[in-house]
Write a structure and sequence with these properties.
Number of domains: 1
CATH superfamily: Amino acid/polyamine transporter I
Distance between the termini: 5 Å
CATH architecture: Up-down Bundle
Low-confidence stretches: 1-35, 500-512
Helix content: 55-70%
Structural class: mainly alpha
CATH class: Mainly Alpha
Strand content: under 5%
CATH topology: Amino acid/polyamine transporter I
Number of helices: 21
Strand order of the largest sheet: 1-2
Largest sheet: 2 strands, antiparallel
Shape: globular
Radius of gyration: 23 Å
Order of helices and strands: EEHHHHHHHHHHHHHHHHHHHHH
Length: about 500
């Protein structure tokens, strides 16, 4: 027998070195698979994967303008600022729990019981629900952008429009993109990071050029913004405040989502320094992207122009600045951008499932990795789930349902930060990166802003815009976690009974 072996305890934490060889025979009886994610990337690769986040503004430019006109620019700016406030806390949690996979891992680590194992531990349930909510927040990005890809292709290529409906193109696009990304990521996260570099160059550079061009060509008119801050019937009553809270819930789904750079905590070579670098470099990019894109579109088209092209307002901006060639470039850019953000969501949600399974909050089958340390089974399940979501056909409805999960995940994760700062068992953890003093009060304030304020707002906004369908979908998906969690607890309990020894032995990776 040769080579170093890695053991993993029930928490999924790997240790290098010698192992008890009495387990070797037992290991032969079980499937010997890696359970610890490989540390193969640096902060630049993490940024490359997370840098697709600014593109999440694309499906919401017209939607926000329809509700609050030019004030949408301020909403985006405030939402990115909210991201900085929240992500300072998440950056600290990432270094306090360097083995945790971002938000899904933080809440699970903080809330789980550290004493004698309780079969149905409430803290474990809360932490797992936060992770599941985060999974549902990122997961539908795949379906949303697959639908948009199908829509753009349908409008761009007449031959496709004559042969397929938009819905059929969305299904085809989803199947091809999801399958391709699974194959690309099969050999590990570094392969996904390389594709991230490539697509970032293809999509973000043209997006920047198209956004800035109107400022130099004379197409940008400042009065289109200053003269239309709010709709004429806007009033600061309870109804409109709830609408604004709902918009903030949807805005943070996009503008705060760069915390995804922290989800790869277990895969950074130097998590103590790589996590903060990846987080804040992505945050700066997001701030300028969201504010400038909305301002450019509004100043160039005006509110009426945006409402005339609510799904793809970047196209008339490109036409105004560059003519037909600019339109073609915009379509290419948008499709590349959508593939990039699909990849970001795919990788993040797959690792969220892996984290939940390792922590015992989902069936253990989702914790399995292939020989390259990639949760391929989770990626396949996510791909199939999103193919089903495409049948809803409406990106806004899917996004609104997904935003419910994101509000829950952020609220619980911020409360987890507060608990980690106060709990005697956690307060002494080493924190190479620390948020400013007293940040637990800031985290508590934004936690309450998420739960209950933004939660109530998004439910109210959904009821006005698209009825109760998206809210019910959100509630049903979130509720599915309960039976899965109870099953996973039964699975753990069964594994601990006599006669189930092989399920309790350490998983061993190496040549035996």
């Amino acid at each position: 027998m040769k080579g170093e072996l890695t053991t993993s305890d029930e928490k999924g934490e790997g240790t290098e070195g010698a192992v008890d060889w009495s387990h070797a025979e037992q290991c032969v009886k079980v499937v010997c698979e890696p359970s610890t994610l490989e540390r193969t990337i640096d902060w630049k690769q993490g940024l490359a994967i997370a840098i697709g986040v600014p593109l999440l503004i694309l499906p919401s430019i017209g939607y926000f303008a329809s509700w609050v006109w030019s004030f949408a620019i301020i909403v985006w700016g405030l939402s990115v600022f909210q991201g900085f406030m929240q992500n300072l806390a998440y950056g600290e949690l990432a270094t306090a729990f360097p083995e945790a996979s971002g938000l899904p891992g933080f809440a699970q680590n903080v809330f789980k019981n550290r004493g004698k194992r309780v079969k149905y531990d409430k803290g474990k349930l809360i932490g797992g629900f936060s992770a599941w909510s985060y999974w549902f927040a990122w997961n539908p990005v795949l379906a949303i952008f697959a639908i948009l890809v199908g829509s753009y292709l349908h409008g761009l290529i007449p031959a496709l429009a004559a042969t397929f409906t938009e819905f059929q193109l969305s299904l085809i696009s989803g199947a091809l993109i999801f399958s391709a990304l699974i194959l690309v990521s099969y050999r590990g996260l570094s392969s996904g990071a390389f594709i991230g570099y490539l697509l970032a160059a293809i999509s973000l550079i043209p997006l920047t050029i198209i956004t800035l061009a109107p400022f130099f060509t004379g197409n940008f008119v400042l009065n289109n913004i200053t003269g239309t801050w709010f709709p004429e019937d806007w009033a600061w009553d309870m109804e409109h405040i709830l609408i604004l809270l709902g918009l903030f819930a949807m805005a943070q789904w996009s503008a705060c989502a760069w915390e995804t750079a922290a989800i790869y905590g277990p895969e950074y070579k130097k998590p103590n320094s790589d996590v903060p670098k990846a987080l804040f470099s992505c945050g700066v990019i997001c701030f300028f992207s969201y504010v400038l894109v909305q301002a450019s579109v509004t100043g160039t088209l005006g509110i009426e122009g945006i409402l005339a092209e609510p799904i793809s307002p970047m196209l008339p901006v490109a036409r105004a600045a560059f003519g037909p060639i600019g339109t073609l470039a915009a379509i290419i850019m948008l499709v590349a951008a959508m593939i990039l953000i699909i990849q970001t969501a795919f990788l993040g949600s797959a690792r969220a499932m892996h984290s939940m399974a390792v922590e015992g909050n989902l069936p253990r089958v989702f914790g399995k990795l292939n020989a390259y340390g990639t949760p391929v089974l989770s990626m396949i399940v996510i791909g199939v789930f999103n193919m089903a979501l495409i049948f809803f056909r409406t990106p806004t409805a899917i996004l609104a349902a997904s935003a419910i999960g994101y509000v829950c995940a952020n609220g619980i994760s911020l409360f987890a930060y507060v608990k980690a700062k106060l709990d005697p068992n956690l307060v002494g953890l080493e924190r190479p990166f620390k948020a400013p003093g007293g940040w637990k009060f800031v985290a508590l304030a934004f936690g309450l802003f998420n739960l209950p304020l933004c939660f109530i707002g998004i439910v109210f906004l959904n009821s006005l815009e698209i009825g109760w369908t998206s809210t019910l979908v959100g509630f049903i998906v979130l509720a599915l976690y309960i039976p899965l969690w109870f099953y996973s607890q039964q699975e753990i309990d069964k594994a601990e009974k006599p006669g189930q020894k092989e399920l309790n032995e350490p998983e061993v990776r190496g040549a035996i």
